[in-house]
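Lecture 7 notes: from sequence to structure.

We start with a single chain of 144 residues. Read the sequence below before looking at the structure.
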Amino acid sequence: MPVSIKKMITVTAAIIINSGKILITRRAPGKHLSGYWEFPGGKIDNGETDEECLAREIEEELDIKVEVGDFFMENNHHYKEKHIVLKAYFCRHLSGDILLHDHDQMAWVSPSDLCKYNFAPADIPFVKALPILHPSGLDNRKTY
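Now the structure, written as tokens:
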């Protein structure tokens, strides 16, 4: 039986922190992984850096400008149809009011409450790792 080769996609995710809470968004109906919560972000275009991709995707998805800070962590996840490399970065909201384009809900959540949401499988390692950082530690690091 032939082995199927999955398409590999590199994707970025924003860990946007404000007053010790993290912004999460829920995929809208009709979208891939609809109904799952995630850290917003998207696919890297050819020639784009991770940081450029994340700033562009957040502006497209949420209508806000962010400053991309330190790298948080990476997760390799194999979905049935594709393999993604998800790279998360801490971000700071610079300007704009959030307007959802690819999502139907958003929430500002404390790190310890992230586990109460049904996250996309690729995001789960981030959900598990973020509560280890104390909320005050999130705000006091150069990671926003």
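The mean pLDDT is 88. Keep this in mind for problem set 3.
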